[in-house]
UniProtKB/TrEMBL annotation:
<dbReference type="InterPro" id="IPR001441">
    <property type="entry name" value="UPP_synth-like"/>
</dbReference>
<dbReference type="InterPro" id="IPR018520">
    <property type="entry name" value="UPP_synth-like_CS"/>
</dbReference>
<dbReference type="GO" id="GO:0016094">
    <property type="term" value="P:polyprenol biosynthetic process"/>
</dbReference>
<keyword id="KW-0808">Transferase</keyword>
<protein>
    <recommendedName>
        <fullName>Alkyl transferase</fullName>
        <ecNumber>2.5.1.-</ecNumber>
    </recommendedName>
</protein>
<comment type="similarity">
    <text>Belongs to the UPP synthase family.</text>
</comment>
<dbReference type="GO" id="GO:0009409">
    <property type="term" value="P:response to cold"/>
</dbReference>
<dbReference type="GO" id="GO:0009570">
    <property type="term" value="C:chloroplast stroma"/>
</dbReference>
<dbReference type="GO" id="GO:0009668">
    <property type="term" value="P:plastid membrane organization"/>
</dbReference>
<dbReference type="Pfam" id="PF01255">
    <property type="entry name" value="Prenyltransf"/>
</dbReference>
<dbReference type="GO" id="GO:0000287">
    <property type="term" value="F:magnesium ion binding"/>
</dbReference>
<dbReference type="GO" id="GO:0045547">
    <property type="term" value="F:ditrans,polycis-polyprenyl diphosphate synthase [(2E,6E)-farnesyl diphosphate specific] activity"/>
</dbReference>
<dbReference type="InterPro" id="IPR036424">
    <property type="entry name" value="UPP_synth-like_sf"/>
</dbReference>
Length: 324
């Protein structure tokens, strides 16, 4: 089965390293090939059984293990940008709060699982587009420490769905597109099969040098700061650190985002029109530019990402000083 994304043509800037020839004929938008293997995840039921009859099982089986394959040049140094985006003005680290699934489902009279299913498809495209545009780090808030308060059926569905995403799409991107991958959050509370899947994916991506995708799973900003403080207190107790040695750099090294070379986002995007950060990367976003999109995340398209990036590159960032 093959699905093509038909979008209006846009001017393309192709950016390459100086050692490679310019390719200005590569298409910006690609076909997405969806495969059809069904998998059982750990000892838990197949995800097909978690859906209501409103989503056909054949459609879910086809799309769940899909790999959205962008027709990107084999030379991974090629960056493809729409006409009004310039590489030197783009954020290096983009963070995103994917919000609005509940309203998306309610507006359509559908179970929440449908919204999460569509949201994961959008997440796949987001990863591909950020890599295509040359973003260095993408951190996405997929499950917060507070999300355990949701109905058990929804939580179980999300855990199964995200494990499937890592097993199929993420692992394929790791192997074929040099994707780096890390999960930040308290992994000890996740299902054991998911912990194993995460460890395997992180290990296989360890030597990669491409875009770094951070999946914030069972993550909370306050908890991140508290755990960092406990680590520092332990080092003070053991005589490894002295109080005079503690500074911002030392503190940041104890945060979960120390797994990446660029821990502090330049741009934070939140979908659904809500104007809050919801306990996400509280220390790290101190100087991030904030962009609030009105779209619900299951409706978030490439054009919406481009608009957020375009808005970012028009902003003046002074970091507390004054622009000359």
């Amino acid at each position: 089965m093959e699905i093509s994304l038909l979008l209006s043509p846009a001017p393309i800037k192709t950016v390459v390293s100086s050692s490679h020839p310019m390719n200005i004929h590569k298409p910006l938008f690609s076909s997405l090939k969806l495969r059809n293997p069904q998998k059982k995840i750990g000892n838990r039921p197949n995800i097909l059984d978690c859906f209501s009859p409103l989503i056909s099982k054949s459609r879910l089986a086809t799309a769940f293990d899909s790999t959205a394959k962008a027709e990107i040049d084999d030379d991974k140094s090629v960056i493809q940008l729409p006409g009004d985006l310039w590489p030197e003005l783009l954020p290096k680290h983009v963070a995103l709060i994917m919000d609005g699934h509940g309203r998306w489902a309610k507006n359509r009279g559908l179970p929440i699982q449908h919204a999460h299913f569509e949201g994961v498809q959008k997440l796949k495209h987001l990863i591909l587009n950020c890599r295509k545009f040359g973003i260095k780090v993408l951190t996405v808030y997929v499950f917060s420490t507070e999300n355990w308060n949701r109905p058990k059926e929804e939580v179980d569905f999300l855990m199964t769905h995200y494990e499937g995403l890592i097993q199929s799409f993420i692992k394929e991107q790791i192997m074929e597109q040099d994707l780096r991958f890390s999960v930040i959050g308290d992994k000890s509370k996740l299902p054991s099969s998911m912990q194993s899947t995460i460890s395997s994916a992180e290990e296989s991506a360890k030597a990669n040098r491409g875009m770094h995708f951070l999946m914030a799973l069972n993550y909370g900003g306050r908890n991140d700061i508290l755990e960092a403080m406990k680590k520092i207190a332990s080092k003070l107790k053991d005589g490894i650190l002295e109080a005079k040695d503690i500074n911002e750099n030392v503190f940041e090294q104890q945060l979960l985002t120390n797994v990446t070379e660029l821990p502090n986002p330049d741009l934070l995007i939140r979908t659904s029109g809500e104007l809050r950060v919801s306990n996400f990367l509280l220390w790290q976003i101190a100087y991030a530019e904030l962009y609030f999109a009105s779209k619900l995340f299951p409706d978030f398209e490439e054009a919406d990402l481009i608009e957020a990036l375009s808005t970012f590159q028009r902003r003046q960032r002074s970091f507390g000083g004054r622009n000359k």
